[in-house]
Amino acid sequence: MNVSKLLVAGVAFSMSAGAFAAGAHGGGHGASSGEPGKASEVARTITVEMYDNYYEPEEITVKPGETVRFVVENKGSLVHEFNIGTPAMHESHQKEMMMMVEHGVIQGGKLNHDMMNMDMGNGHSMKHDDPNSVLLEPGQSKEVVWKFSDKGNIEFACNVPGHYQSGMYGDVNFE
Amino acid sequence: MQGLVKAFQPSSNEVQLGIKQMKIRLLTGLLTLLMPAMVMAGEYGLTVDRVKIDTGDFVKEGIGYNGASPGPVMRFKEGENVRINVTNNLDEMTSIHWHGLILPFDQDGVPGISFPGIKPGETFTYEFPIQQAGTYWFHSHSGFQEPDGAYGAIVIEPEGREPFRYDREYVVQLTDKHPHSGDRIMRNLKMMSDYYNREQQTVGEFFSDVSKNGLMNTVSDRMAWGSMRMMKADVEDIHGFTGLINGKGPSQNWTGIFEPGERIRLRFINSSAMTYFDIRIPGLDMTVVQADGNNVQPVSVDEFRIGVAETYDVIVRPKDEQAYTIFAESMGRSGYARATLAPEEGMEAAVPQLREAARLTMADMGGMPGMDHGSMAGMDHGNMDMGSSEGVSGMDHSNMGSMDHSNMKGMDHSNMKGMDHSDMSGMDHGSMAMGKGGPSDPFYAKGSGLVPTAANGGKFLSYSDLKAQDPLYEDREPTREIELRLTGNMERYTWSINGVKYEDADPIRLKYGERVRFKFVNETMMTHPMHLHGMWSILDVGAGQWNPIKHTVSVNPGTTVYMETEVDEPGQWAFHCHLSYHAAAGMFRKVIVEGGPESTQAKTGVVAEDGGEA
């Protein structure tokens, strides 16, 4: 048995589980982080800069139900993520990100796009294209349009291994 | 203004400063106020004193600073100029070396290399700019004063923000306190190198090996070890110590307080004379954020090994209202240090049992020259404790039978049809988790018996996990390579570099501006923490520009380790194994940096004439 096949299949499984979890959290119950926002409903834009390894700003305040356009810029020299979720969602996502590092998808300051786009069967890949997050190389900038739901314990966080644990997260406060 | 603030608000760890020193600091504060143009300068005082050290197991005379061992935590700020008045209250010479600090060579505190030393009754004033941040330490570089208690911690706050966050911090400074004085230990080792080794194989063990492995195999194994003038159990030379954390023995249980949910930065410093520690906090992940004072890309681990003189900063986040044990087992399992993190004083958690001692294998002797392999003919290699699935042949898949597939439950293999593997060239198989196929680590010999594993089966930090957070130097080709074979004879307790001990050796001459690649070849059975003073050691972990910078590089038995140094500090420096009794036995060199700013060259001559002992 080829070991690498097993491991790749393991990643495919784990990534699909992650996508499912994110979908399930879009439902709007108490612990949810919100849902993808519509550009037409954007009330305001917040720029979030990512450094090695922290955000500026480290907290934001939103209204329940508000749709925010985040302009996320990676000003560091390592790959960073901006991901909106509950601490539990971040924790489970960290396992997927660990896999991405172990398989060479995230290499310090670079992303291996070929690996990310690789068809892992059944339409799964390591693209990291969930709507609640972006994964950026140094110098890159992308937008996330997000509609926050009710009040909850929401953080924006970088789940690249070690980054969240060393403090790369920010609090979402509700007015 | 900064000076005044400093004078009125000494940090909690400086409260031991003498009244006289406080007056001086006040005065300095006023002066600073009067002269606003002055660069920010901090005035500090240390007295070197005879002290009593109580480990809980025994009480003995020792040496300390400001009346205690360990000394105070010196807190500096990046960008300040410090003046440190050191008063020698001993009846012998002393010195203080600021371990890991980048400073002018004549402030480095090595008698005979940087300066003549500090005479009894004399006050010597160190003065240097603080050009870095992080966790470091200081200790005497005279005789065996450091093993006798003359050490303390240095914490330097960065000018900008830290690239990580925490709510509180503690220094966790380890040592291996022995009931014998350093002088006595050295005398005994010279007389009988296994004087302090309790782990020696016994006659009984010989016969149990005979019944297990057969007479011929056992005899030839013993003969092989005997011919190398070593004993198989020599992971550590010195047993019989009590592990201390911040001066407290296991029964005295140093305790750091936290509120559940807080992030705590623990600044681990290994100030031991001879002992490596394997550190874990059962129930907590530790995220390593600094090694030897320099930020590294954070890596979460369950356990890590700290070499003598190294420092590691970790962030932990205890979420529950309970106590956690900081458990530090010595690498050879002959002793341990223990402390506690708890929501309130007096709470404690279970203290684990010491695990079984690691045994060196023949693989750990890989670098031994002159080994008579002929006499090993009768050896059955099948009985050798190879310990690793990687064995000799690299990736031998036939050995992977014991891979742990348990995490893959529920995998739906039906979707794997048509998977295109042709694109997988970028996959890094080197970092694949090998499950339980046997521990391996590129910084240990293949088949080594020393490779550490985490007590909970989780992640154990390797040097290869250390990547610089923000590389200090441009990556460039080294200008030349210098090979340093780490050599010794355990039975005569002689330790040397390239077979030559310090007294008989020429200095290593480097040229200002060059980048030197040092090749350490460890031909001994001991692990050596090599410490170059004054300039950074860029440890080659194969990460190119992300290679971490350290001040102490541990070289395991039977391995070759490379580090590079940008020769950017003029003057002359010490370069040695940081195991106290190995350095004293001769595993030590003087490094002379030729060239550089002219003003510094004149000074080296003065020091050389003054002499003194290193």
Automatic annotation (TrEMBL), chain A:
Pfam families per record: Cupredoxin_1
Database matches in SUPFAM superfamilies: Cupredoxins
Coiled coil: none
All residue ranges annotated as the EfeO-type cupredoxin-like domain in the record: 39-86
Position of the signal peptide: 1-21
GO molecular function: metal ion binding
Keywords attached to this entry: Copper, Metal-binding, Signal
Domain of life: Bacteria
Name used for this protein in its record: Copper-binding protein
